[in-house]
């Protein structure tokens, strides 16, 4: 995945060398100036971001506006309209949680654990639908027959996911399982849920891009960060098929407590950790 992104950036870089960006009213003389502006604003990957912003438009005025917004702290993905996730450009719109690279680990586990030839897969708390999209596409490419449903409580996220999952799966709006079609109850083989898991008291310490631009309901997991997780586990007991799995991402220090919640609900629990992705996923099996 990393190599794919690097090769994509290399292609964009070559495009830039071949194009002249002399900005309107002399605002942007060259890519170097954009890089300098982004770097001064604290963008760690200023070169890469400049390349992607330049690639996003042929209009110097629009480019100037994009750079100004990025300098003011707007997440890059909102400006590009997409986020790279498992090698796919997933559509993103303002106000919808930006898929994080670490969540690719949850999809890895989902794919590894999918032994059935035909699966009912649900992406709960779907945001853009990135998890359902990539898991379904990759499983289908492996010859699996996958029926995908996704759901989120936020109408903006639902609209975004409907765009991303058009022709791939259906998307429902509502509170956790209440959003899902009743016929799925007791029949879900794989339940992916990247629930909000930041403890409320920690929200203020998040990086400004998340704190100021992503909606609190996409981040806030209540007092210990596991409030929505507990509700997902409560529902999973009814909604999973026998042998079905629920996979939830969380922070490293929440894993043991989350596994205990799963065990108390009568399911088998295991904790998966990845040093590469810096990610923790708990898996409950009914
Ligand atoms: C951390 S984001 C994850 C989004 C996406 N799965 C991803 O990983 O990119 C959490 C999502 O949960 C949604 N959400 C929060 N509370 C919810 C609820 N009670 N029912 C359904 N979705 C909810 C938010 O709107 C947000 O899109």
TrEMBL record:
Class of this enzyme: transferase
InterPro entries tied to this protein: HemK-like, MeTrfrase_put, N5-glutamine_MTase, SAM-dependent_MTases_sf, Small_mtfrase_dom
EC number: 2.1.1.297
GO molecular function, one term: peptide chain release factor N(5)-glutamine methyltransferase activity
Pfam families found in the cross-reference section: MTS
Methyltransferase small domain location: 117-198
Source superkingdom: Bacteria
Reactions performed catalytically: L-glutaminyl-[peptide chain release factor] + S-adenosyl-L-methionine = N(5)-methyl-L-glutaminyl-[peptide chain release factor] + S-adenosyl-L-homocysteine + H(+)
NCBIfam families xref list: hemK_fam, PrmC_rel_meth
Stored PANTHER family: HEMK METHYLTRANSFERASE, MTRF1L RELEASE FACTOR GLUTAMINE METHYLTRANSFERASE
Protein name stated in the entry: peptide chain release factor N(5)-glutamine methyltransferase
Native species: Nocardia camponoti
